[in-house]
Specification:
Helices cover 62% and strands 0% of the residues. The chain contains six helices and no strands.
C-alpha cells in the first residue's frame, strides 16, 4: 500500500521502468540459444508487476483525490489499513497527523509501516479523532444458546 507522496513517486518510477523493460523484452530479437518461452515468462512477470503497481497507484490517487470516502470493514484486523486510508483521504500528511496528536512524524511512519501493530486503543482512538473518522458498524455477538 502506498502511504505517502514519496512512496507514490517511487512506485511511479518503478512502474515506468517495468513498462520500458516490457517493451524491450517484447521487441528485442532473441538468439537461437534462448528458449522463446523465456520471453513469455519475462513478459508475464513484468506485466503482473505493472498491474500490481498500477492498482496501488490508482487506489492511492482515489483516496488522495477524495473519490473514496468510506470503507466497510468486516474485521478489526482491517482497522489499521482503514486508519491509513482515512489519513490519505483527509488530505493529511504523516507530518500533519503527527503534529495533531503530538508525536514525531517518524512515529507515524513506523506505526503505518507496521500497520499500527502494538499501538494501544486510546492512541488509535486519538488518531481516528484527529482524522475525523467515524465508525458506524453493527457488531454481531455469538449466541450461547
Amino acid at each position: 500500500m502506498i502511504t505517502n507522496q514519496r512512496e507514490y513517486r517511487v512506485t511511479k518510477s518503478w512502474m515506468a521502468r517495468f513498462e520500458k523493460d516490457l517493451v524491450v523484452n517484447d521487441t528485442r530479437e532473441i538468439g537461437p540459444d534462448v528458449d522463446p518461452r523465456m520471453r513469455q515468462v519475462m513478459h508475464d512477470a513484468l506485466a503482473s508487476e505493472i498491474e500490481i503497481l498500477r492498482g496501488q497507484m490508482d487506489h492511492y490517487e482515489q483516496l488522495r483525490d477524495g473519490r473514496i470516502t468510506s470503507r466497510e470493514i468486516t474485521s478489526l484486523r482491517e482497522l489499521p489499513i482503514t486508519l491509513i486510508e482515512a489519513r490519505i483521504a483527509a488530505g493529511q500528511s504523516q507530518r500533519t497527523l503527527a503534529e495533531q496528536i503530538g508525536v514525531a512524524e517518524q512515529q507515524i511512519q513506523r506505526w503505518e509501516a507496521n500497520e499500527y501493530s502494538g499501538v494501544n486503543l486510546d492512541r488509535l482512538q486519538s488518531i481516528a479523532d484527529a482524522l475525523g473518522m467515524r465508525i458506524h458498524k453493527t457488531i454481531t455477538y455469538s449466541s450461547a444458546a
